[in-house]
Amino acid sequence: MQKIPKRVYTLEFKEQAVKRVQSGYNIASVACEMGLAEQTARNWLRRSEAGKLEASAGKA
């Protein structure tokens, strides 16, 4: 069976998702619109608030 590769996200993409949530959009709807798991969006929000949001490691 083949391994499913992890998706690579740019810092700009992550920041866009975080800004939408911070501006009042529901985190579930932002995640759905951007093709993310809701938990991924929550993790990015938490990291952003801690000042630790970074681009994904790997090949873009």
UniProtKB/TrEMBL annotation:
An example molecular function term from Gene Ontology annotations: transposase activity
Leader peptide range in chain numbering: none
GO biological process, one term: DNA transposition
InterPro entries: Homeodomain-like_sf, Transposase_8, WH-like_DNA-bd_sf
Coiled-coil zones: none
Pfam family, one: HTH_Tnp_1
Family (UniProt): Belongs to the transposase 8 family.
Record-given protein name: Transposase
Organism field: Marichromatium gracile
